[in-house]
Amino acid sequence: MRHAIQLDFAGGRPALSLAGGLLLAVGVVAASVVFLEYHTVAQHRAGLELKLAALARADALAAAPVETLADARIAVSAEQAATDLATPWTLLLSELEQASKETQGQVAVLGVEPDHAKHNVRVSAEARTLSLALAYVERLQTSRSLSYPMLDRHEMRADDAQHPVRFELSGAWRDLP
Amino acid sequence: VSPLWRDEVGIYLAQRRACLVRMRRGVRPTLAAEVDHADPAAAAGWEGALTLLEQQMNEGTWSDARVRVVLADHWVRYSVVPWSDALSSAGERLAHARELMSGIFGAEMSDWTVSLSEAPPGSSRLASAVPTALLQALKDAALRHRQKLVSVQPQLIAAYNTWRHVLPAATAAWFVTVEEGSLAALRMCGDGIDRVHAVRIGLDWARELKRLQTFGRLASASPTDGRVYVDLPAALRTLRPEGSADLEWLDEPNPPLTTLHQLEHLRRRAA
Lengths: 177, 271
Description:
A: alpha+beta; B: alpha/beta; five-stranded mixed sheet
Protein backbone atom coordinates (compact mmCIF):
# COMPACT_ATOMS: atom_id res chain seq x y z
CA MET A 1 0.00 0.00 0.00
CA ARG A 2 1.20 3.49 -0.80
CA HIS A 3 2.18 5.80 2.07
CA ALA A 4 -0.28 8.56 2.85
CA ILE A 5 0.69 12.07 1.75
CA GLN A 6 1.15 14.08 4.95
CA LEU A 7 0.22 17.56 3.82
CA ASP A 8 -2.08 19.73 5.87
CA PHE A 9 -2.65 23.47 6.10
CA ALA A 10 -3.93 23.23 9.67
CA GLY A 11 -0.84 21.35 10.79
CA GLY A 12 -3.20 18.70 12.03
CA ARG A 13 -2.18 15.24 13.09
CA PRO A 14 -4.18 12.11 12.39
CA ALA A 15 -6.82 11.42 15.03
CA LEU A 16 -6.01 8.79 17.61
CA SER A 17 -7.00 5.47 16.07
CA LEU A 18 -8.18 2.45 18.03
CA ALA A 19 -4.88 0.66 17.40
CA GLY A 20 -2.96 3.78 18.39
CA GLY A 21 -5.03 4.16 21.54
CA LEU A 22 -4.45 0.52 22.48
CA LEU A 23 -0.74 0.88 21.83
CA LEU A 24 -0.65 4.01 23.97
CA ALA A 25 -2.51 2.21 26.78
CA VAL A 26 -0.11 -0.75 26.60
CA GLY A 27 2.83 1.66 26.70
CA VAL A 28 1.43 3.51 29.71
CA VAL A 29 0.79 0.23 31.57
CA ALA A 30 4.29 -1.04 30.72
CA ALA A 31 5.86 2.22 31.87
CA SER A 32 3.84 2.06 35.12
CA VAL A 33 4.95 -1.52 35.76
CA VAL A 34 8.58 -0.59 35.16
CA PHE A 35 8.23 2.41 37.48
CA LEU A 36 6.66 0.30 40.25
CA GLU A 37 9.40 -2.31 39.83
CA TYR A 38 12.02 0.40 40.05
CA HIS A 39 10.35 1.87 43.14
CA THR A 40 10.26 -1.53 44.85
CA VAL A 41 13.90 -2.25 44.04
CA ALA A 42 14.91 1.23 45.19
CA GLN A 43 13.11 0.74 48.52
CA HIS A 44 14.70 -2.68 48.96
CA ARG A 45 18.08 -1.18 48.28
CA ALA A 46 17.48 1.65 50.75
CA GLY A 47 16.52 -0.95 53.39
CA LEU A 48 19.69 -2.92 52.74
CA GLU A 49 21.77 0.25 53.01
CA LEU A 50 20.14 1.09 56.34
CA LYS A 51 20.90 -2.42 57.62
CA LEU A 52 24.48 -2.12 56.41
CA ALA A 53 24.87 1.23 58.15
CA ALA A 54 23.46 -0.24 61.39
CA LEU A 55 25.90 -3.15 61.20
CA ALA A 56 28.78 -0.79 60.54
CA ARG A 57 27.78 1.30 63.59
CA ALA A 58 27.59 -1.83 65.77
CA ASP A 59 31.05 -2.90 64.62
CA ALA A 60 32.40 0.55 65.36
CA LEU A 61 30.94 0.53 68.88
CA ALA A 62 32.43 -2.91 69.58
CA ALA A 63 35.85 -1.74 68.52
CA ALA A 64 35.59 1.60 70.30
CA PRO A 65 36.93 0.70 73.87
CA VAL A 66 40.15 -0.77 72.50
CA GLU A 67 40.63 2.21 70.32
CA THR A 68 39.82 4.57 73.20
CA LEU A 69 42.38 2.97 75.49
CA ALA A 70 44.95 2.93 72.78
CA ASP A 71 44.17 6.53 71.96
CA ALA A 72 44.45 7.46 75.64
CA ARG A 73 47.82 5.73 75.92
CA ILE A 74 49.04 7.47 72.84
CA ALA A 75 47.78 10.78 74.18
CA VAL A 76 49.55 10.26 77.53
CA SER A 77 52.76 9.23 75.81
CA ALA A 78 52.61 12.24 73.57
CA GLU A 79 52.00 14.49 76.55
CA GLN A 80 54.88 12.88 78.42
CA ALA A 81 57.16 13.30 75.45
CA ALA A 82 56.17 16.93 75.14
CA THR A 83 56.82 17.50 78.85
CA ASP A 84 60.18 15.75 78.68
CA LEU A 85 61.12 17.81 75.70
CA ALA A 86 60.14 20.93 77.61
CA THR A 87 62.64 20.08 80.46
CA PRO A 88 66.01 21.91 79.98
CA TRP A 89 67.99 18.67 80.22
CA THR A 90 70.98 19.77 78.24
CA LEU A 91 71.80 22.80 80.35
CA LEU A 92 70.94 21.09 83.65
CA LEU A 93 73.14 18.07 83.05
CA SER A 94 75.88 20.27 81.71
CA GLU A 95 75.90 22.39 84.88
CA LEU A 96 75.77 19.32 87.17
CA GLU A 97 78.75 17.89 85.34
CA GLN A 98 80.63 21.18 85.48
CA ALA A 99 80.01 21.47 89.22
CA SER A 100 81.36 17.92 89.74
CA LYS A 101 84.47 18.74 87.74
CA GLU A 102 85.12 21.81 89.88
CA THR A 103 85.34 19.55 92.96
CA GLN A 104 88.06 17.51 91.24
CA GLY A 105 85.88 14.45 91.26
CA GLN A 106 85.18 14.64 95.01
CA VAL A 107 81.42 14.70 94.35
CA ALA A 108 79.69 12.03 92.22
CA VAL A 109 76.18 12.52 90.91
CA LEU A 110 74.21 9.30 91.44
CA GLY A 111 70.86 10.22 90.02
CA VAL A 112 68.68 12.97 88.67
CA GLU A 113 64.86 12.73 89.05
CA PRO A 114 62.66 15.35 87.55
CA ASP A 115 59.21 16.00 89.06
CA HIS A 116 57.21 17.55 86.24
CA ALA A 117 54.14 18.11 88.39
CA LYS A 118 56.13 20.22 90.86
CA HIS A 119 58.44 21.56 88.19
CA ASN A 120 61.53 20.67 90.16
CA VAL A 121 64.41 18.20 90.07
CA ARG A 122 65.91 16.01 92.78
CA VAL A 123 69.64 15.25 92.53
CA SER A 124 71.25 12.37 94.45
CA ALA A 125 75.04 12.59 94.92
CA GLU A 126 77.88 11.38 97.09
CA ALA A 127 80.80 13.41 98.43
CA ARG A 128 83.86 12.58 100.41
CA THR A 129 83.00 15.07 103.13
CA LEU A 130 80.02 17.09 104.25
CA SER A 131 81.83 20.32 103.48
CA LEU A 132 82.37 19.21 99.89
CA ALA A 133 78.65 18.42 99.66
CA LEU A 134 77.71 21.86 100.99
CA ALA A 135 80.19 23.51 98.58
CA TYR A 136 78.57 21.57 95.74
CA VAL A 137 75.13 22.82 96.75
CA GLU A 138 76.45 26.33 97.05
CA ARG A 139 78.01 26.04 93.59
CA LEU A 140 74.69 24.97 92.12
CA GLN A 141 72.96 27.96 93.67
CA THR A 142 74.69 30.04 90.99
CA SER A 143 73.35 27.73 88.31
CA ARG A 144 71.27 29.20 85.46
CA SER A 145 69.07 26.15 85.17
CA LEU A 146 68.14 25.71 88.85
CA SER A 147 66.63 28.18 91.20
CA TYR A 148 67.04 27.84 94.97
CA PRO A 149 68.64 24.41 95.12
CA MET A 150 68.55 23.27 98.77
CA LEU A 151 70.08 20.36 100.57
CA ASP A 152 67.22 18.15 101.59
CA ARG A 153 69.02 15.49 103.55
CA HIS A 154 72.42 13.92 104.02
CA GLU A 155 73.85 10.87 105.75
CA MET A 156 77.25 9.51 106.35
CA ARG A 157 77.66 6.01 105.07
CA ALA A 158 78.99 3.96 107.86
CA ASP A 159 79.20 0.82 105.77
CA ASP A 160 81.90 2.39 103.65
CA ALA A 161 85.46 2.50 105.04
CA GLN A 162 85.99 6.08 103.76
CA HIS A 163 82.67 7.20 105.26
CA PRO A 164 81.45 9.24 102.33
CA VAL A 165 78.40 11.50 102.64
CA ARG A 166 75.39 10.68 100.51
CA PHE A 167 73.11 13.65 100.07
CA GLU A 168 70.08 14.82 98.12
CA LEU A 169 69.25 18.28 96.94
CA SER A 170 66.28 19.63 95.08
CA GLY A 171 65.45 22.79 93.21
CA ALA A 172 63.05 24.19 90.66
CA TRP A 173 64.26 24.38 87.13
CA ARG A 174 64.02 27.46 85.13
CA ASP A 175 62.20 27.53 81.78
CA LEU A 176 64.68 29.07 79.44
CA PRO A 177 63.64 30.60 76.18
CA VAL B 1 -16.93 14.71 26.24
CA SER B 2 -13.22 13.92 26.02
CA PRO B 3 -11.48 15.88 23.23
CA LEU B 4 -10.27 12.53 21.90
CA TRP B 5 -13.86 11.40 21.42
CA ARG B 6 -15.41 14.64 20.20
CA ASP B 7 -17.56 14.35 17.12
CA GLU B 8 -15.88 15.17 13.84
CA VAL B 9 -17.33 17.31 11.10
CA GLY B 10 -16.02 16.94 7.58
CA ILE B 11 -16.48 19.86 5.18
CA TYR B 12 -15.92 19.76 1.45
CA LEU B 13 -15.86 23.12 -0.29
CA ALA B 14 -16.10 23.41 -4.05
CA GLN B 15 -17.45 25.96 -6.47
CA ARG B 16 -21.11 26.73 -5.55
CA ARG B 17 -21.15 23.72 -3.24
CA ALA B 18 -20.55 22.75 0.37
CA CYS B 19 -20.81 19.17 1.65
CA LEU B 20 -20.88 18.44 5.37
CA VAL B 21 -20.81 15.20 7.33
CA ARG B 22 -20.84 14.74 11.09
CA MET B 23 -19.36 11.55 12.53
CA ARG B 24 -20.09 10.44 16.06
CA ARG B 25 -16.82 9.21 17.48
CA GLY B 26 -16.30 5.99 19.33
CA VAL B 27 -14.82 2.58 18.76
CA ARG B 28 -16.90 2.45 15.57
CA PRO B 29 -17.62 5.98 14.30
CA THR B 30 -21.15 6.39 12.99
CA LEU B 31 -22.66 8.91 10.64
CA ALA B 32 -24.74 11.46 12.58
CA ALA B 33 -25.65 13.89 9.81
CA GLU B 34 -24.77 14.76 6.24
CA VAL B 35 -25.81 17.42 3.79
CA ASP B 36 -24.86 18.37 0.26
CA HIS B 37 -25.67 22.00 -0.21
CA ALA B 38 -25.29 23.16 -3.82
CA ASP B 39 -26.58 26.41 -5.25
CA PRO B 40 -26.01 27.08 -8.97
CA ALA B 41 -26.80 30.74 -8.32
CA ALA B 42 -24.01 31.14 -5.76
CA ALA B 43 -20.87 33.12 -6.52
CA ALA B 44 -18.17 31.07 -8.28
CA GLY B 45 -15.23 31.96 -6.01
CA TRP B 46 -14.39 30.49 -2.62
CA GLU B 47 -16.26 33.38 -1.00
CA GLY B 48 -19.49 31.95 -2.49
CA ALA B 49 -18.69 28.49 -1.14
CA LEU B 50 -18.04 29.98 2.31
CA THR B 51 -21.42 31.70 2.19
CA LEU B 52 -23.09 28.35 1.50
CA LEU B 53 -21.10 26.82 4.36
CA GLU B 54 -22.09 29.61 6.72
CA GLN B 55 -25.77 29.04 5.90
CA GLN B 56 -25.41 25.41 6.96
CA MET B 57 -23.33 26.19 10.03
CA ASN B 58 -25.97 28.56 11.35
CA GLU B 59 -28.37 25.65 11.67
CA GLY B 60 -26.36 24.43 14.66
CA THR B 61 -25.98 20.77 13.68
CA TRP B 62 -22.28 21.20 13.13
CA SER B 63 -20.96 23.03 16.18
CA ASP B 64 -18.93 21.63 19.13
CA ALA B 65 -16.80 19.31 17.03
CA ARG B 66 -13.40 18.84 15.47
CA VAL B 67 -13.40 19.93 11.84
CA ARG B 68 -11.61 18.54 8.81
CA VAL B 69 -11.90 20.58 5.64
CA VAL B 70 -11.24 19.42 2.09
CA LEU B 71 -10.82 22.18 -0.52
CA ALA B 72 -11.59 21.70 -4.17
CA ASP B 73 -8.49 21.72 -6.37
CA HIS B 74 -9.99 24.66 -8.21
CA TRP B 75 -8.46 26.94 -5.52
CA VAL B 76 -5.26 25.00 -4.97
CA ARG B 77 -1.89 25.13 -6.65
CA TYR B 78 0.61 22.28 -6.69
CA SER B 79 4.23 21.70 -7.47
CA VAL B 80 6.76 18.92 -6.95
CA VAL B 81 9.82 20.10 -5.02
CA PRO B 82 12.94 18.05 -5.74
CA TRP B 83 15.15 17.04 -2.82
CA SER B 84 18.08 19.35 -2.13
CA ASP B 85 21.03 18.50 0.11
CA ALA B 86 21.68 22.21 0.62
CA LEU B 87 18.48 22.65 2.67
CA SER B 88 18.74 21.55 6.27
CA SER B 89 15.65 22.84 8.08
CA ALA B 90 11.91 22.72 7.55
CA GLY B 91 11.87 26.51 7.24
CA GLU B 92 14.45 26.45 4.45
CA ARG B 93 12.58 23.72 2.61
CA LEU B 94 9.33 25.68 2.84
CA ALA B 95 11.03 28.88 1.61
CA HIS B 96 12.52 26.91 -1.27
CA ALA B 97 9.08 25.53 -2.17
CA ARG B 98 7.57 29.02 -2.09
CA GLU B 99 10.35 30.32 -4.33
CA LEU B 100 9.78 27.46 -6.74
CA MET B 101 6.03 28.11 -6.86
CA SER B 102 6.59 31.84 -7.34
CA GLY B 103 8.68 30.97 -10.40
CA ILE B 104 5.82 28.86 -11.77
CA PHE B 105 2.75 30.89 -10.77
CA GLY B 106 4.17 34.41 -10.54
CA ALA B 107 4.73 36.96 -7.79
CA GLU B 108 1.09 36.86 -6.64
CA MET B 109 2.06 33.87 -4.46
CA SER B 110 2.62 36.33 -1.62
CA ASP B 111 -1.11 36.06 -0.79
CA TRP B 112 -0.98 32.26 -0.69
CA THR B 113 -0.05 29.90 2.11
CA VAL B 114 2.31 27.12 1.09
CA SER B 115 2.47 23.72 2.74
CA LEU B 116 4.94 20.95 2.08
CA SER B 117 4.37 17.22 2.39
CA GLU B 118 6.46 15.04 4.67
CA ALA B 119 8.90 12.76 2.88
CA PRO B 120 12.02 10.77 3.77
CA PRO B 121 15.40 12.39 3.02
CA GLY B 122 16.35 12.13 -0.63
CA SER B 123 12.74 12.03 -1.86
CA SER B 124 10.94 14.81 -3.64
CA ARG B 125 8.05 16.50 -1.80
CA LEU B 126 4.69 17.78 -2.87
CA ALA B 127 4.11 21.50 -2.32
CA SER B 128 0.63 22.92 -2.24
CA ALA B 129 -0.69 26.45 -1.88
CA VAL B 130 -4.10 27.88 -1.02
CA PRO B 131 -5.19 31.52 -0.62
CA THR B 132 -4.28 32.77 2.86
CA ALA B 133 -7.58 34.65 3.09
CA LEU B 134 -9.49 31.38 2.54
CA LEU B 135 -7.57 29.67 5.36
CA GLN B 136 -8.20 32.60 7.67
CA ALA B 137 -11.91 32.62 6.81
CA LEU B 138 -12.10 28.90 7.69
CA LYS B 139 -10.36 29.52 11.03
CA ASP B 140 -12.72 32.38 11.83
CA ALA B 141 -15.76 30.28 10.94
CA ALA B 142 -14.53 27.44 13.16
CA LEU B 143 -14.06 29.86 16.03
CA ARG B 144 -17.54 31.30 15.59
CA HIS B 145 -19.16 27.86 15.70
CA ARG B 146 -17.13 26.44 18.63
CA GLN B 147 -15.23 24.08 16.39
CA LYS B 148 -11.62 23.02 16.43
CA LEU B 149 -10.08 23.16 12.98
CA VAL B 150 -7.75 20.15 12.91
CA SER B 151 -7.17 19.65 9.20
CA VAL B 152 -7.36 21.51 5.89
CA GLN B 153 -6.38 19.42 2.88
CA PRO B 154 -6.72 19.87 -0.87
CA GLN B 155 -9.00 17.42 -2.64
CA LEU B 156 -6.14 15.74 -4.53
CA ILE B 157 -4.40 14.84 -1.25
CA ALA B 158 -7.59 13.75 0.53
CA ALA B 159 -8.71 11.65 -2.45
CA TYR B 160 -5.27 10.06 -2.86
CA ASN B 161 -5.14 9.15 0.84
CA THR B 162 -8.62 7.64 0.55
CA TRP B 163 -7.69 5.48 -2.42
CA ARG B 164 -4.05 4.70 -1.69
CA HIS B 165 -4.87 1.16 -0.55
CA VAL B 166 -5.90 0.20 -4.10
CA LEU B 167 -3.06 1.99 -5.89
CA PRO B 168 0.03 0.01 -6.97
CA ALA B 169 2.68 0.16 -4.25
CA ALA B 170 5.86 -0.12 -6.29
CA THR B 171 5.15 0.56 -9.97
CA ALA B 172 4.65 3.99 -11.48
CA ALA B 173 1.04 5.13 -11.99
CA TRP B 174 -1.11 8.22 -12.33
CA PHE B 175 -3.83 9.16 -9.87
CA VAL B 176 -6.48 11.55 -11.19
CA THR B 177 -9.34 13.15 -9.30
CA VAL B 178 -12.06 15.05 -11.10
CA GLU B 179 -14.52 17.62 -9.85
CA GLU B 180 -16.69 20.29 -11.38
CA GLY B 181 -14.37 22.78 -13.05
CA SER B 182 -11.04 21.12 -12.38
CA LEU B 183 -8.96 18.00 -12.74
CA ALA B 184 -5.86 17.23 -10.66
CA ALA B 185 -3.37 14.44 -11.29
CA LEU B 186 -0.20 13.22 -9.70
CA ARG B 187 2.24 10.57 -10.84
CA MET B 188 3.53 8.11 -8.31
CA CYS B 189 6.99 6.74 -8.83
CA GLY B 190 8.85 4.18 -6.79
CA ASP B 191 9.65 6.33 -3.77
CA GLY B 192 7.18 9.19 -3.97
CA ILE B 193 5.61 11.64 -6.37
CA ASP B 194 7.50 13.07 -9.29
CA ARG B 195 4.82 15.01 -11.24
CA VAL B 196 1.65 16.89 -10.39
CA HIS B 197 -0.85 18.86 -12.47
CA ALA B 198 -4.07 20.74 -11.74
CA VAL B 199 -6.03 22.06 -14.69
CA ARG B 200 -9.32 23.86 -15.20
CA ILE B 201 -11.86 21.91 -17.23
CA GLY B 202 -15.12 22.87 -18.84
CA LEU B 203 -18.62 21.68 -18.14
CA ASP B 204 -18.68 19.36 -21.14
CA TRP B 205 -17.93 16.24 -19.10
CA ALA B 206 -18.13 13.83 -22.05
CA ARG B 207 -15.47 15.77 -23.89
CA GLU B 208 -13.24 16.05 -20.82
CA LEU B 209 -13.48 12.33 -20.12
CA LYS B 210 -12.52 11.56 -23.71
CA ARG B 211 -9.47 13.77 -23.25
CA LEU B 212 -8.70 11.86 -20.08
CA GLN B 213 -9.05 8.60 -22.02
CA THR B 214 -6.56 9.85 -24.59
CA PHE B 215 -4.22 10.76 -21.79
CA GLY B 216 -4.63 7.25 -20.33
CA ARG B 217 -3.84 5.64 -23.64
CA LEU B 218 -0.69 7.72 -24.04
CA ALA B 219 0.36 7.01 -20.47
CA SER B 220 -0.20 3.28 -20.83
CA ALA B 221 1.94 3.24 -23.96
CA SER B 222 4.78 4.84 -22.04
CA PRO B 223 6.79 2.36 -19.97
CA THR B 224 7.48 5.03 -17.32
CA ASP B 225 3.94 6.36 -16.86
CA GLY B 226 2.01 3.20 -16.00
CA ARG B 227 -1.73 2.92 -15.46
CA VAL B 228 -4.08 5.84 -14.83
CA TYR B 229 -6.40 5.53 -11.82
CA VAL B 230 -9.37 7.88 -11.93
CA ASP B 231 -11.46 9.07 -9.00
CA LEU B 232 -14.70 10.11 -10.66
CA PRO B 233 -17.95 11.37 -9.11
CA ALA B 234 -20.65 8.73 -9.23
CA ALA B 235 -22.93 10.87 -11.38
CA LEU B 236 -20.34 10.95 -14.16
CA ARG B 237 -19.86 7.20 -14.35
CA THR B 238 -22.58 6.93 -16.97
CA LEU B 239 -20.52 9.26 -19.13
CA ARG B 240 -17.52 6.97 -19.14
CA PRO B 241 -16.36 6.59 -22.75
CA GLU B 242 -16.73 3.20 -24.39
CA GLY B 243 -13.59 1.11 -24.60
CA SER B 244 -11.77 2.98 -21.87
CA ALA B 245 -9.64 0.01 -20.87
CA ASP B 246 -6.62 2.27 -20.47
CA LEU B 247 -8.18 3.88 -17.42
CA GLU B 248 -8.79 2.30 -14.01
CA TRP B 249 -12.07 3.66 -12.66
CA LEU B 250 -12.00 3.72 -8.89
CA ASP B 251 -15.22 2.43 -7.33
CA GLU B 252 -16.27 2.32 -3.73
CA PRO B 253 -14.77 -0.97 -2.50
CA ASN B 254 -15.38 -0.62 1.25
CA PRO B 255 -17.83 1.16 3.51
CA PRO B 256 -16.39 4.49 4.68
CA LEU B 257 -14.64 4.35 8.05
CA THR B 258 -13.35 7.82 8.79
CA THR B 259 -14.72 11.32 8.51
CA LEU B 260 -12.70 11.98 5.37
CA HIS B 261 -13.79 8.65 3.85
CA GLN B 262 -17.39 9.56 4.56
CA LEU B 263 -16.85 13.03 3.12
CA GLU B 264 -15.26 11.60 -0.03
CA HIS B 265 -18.14 9.17 -0.28
CA LEU B 266 -20.64 12.04 -0.10
CA ARG B 267 -18.68 14.17 -2.54
CA ARG B 268 -18.52 11.42 -5.15
CA ARG B 269 -22.13 10.37 -4.66
CA ALA B 270 -23.62 13.84 -4.80
CA ALA B 271 -21.67 15.41 -7.62
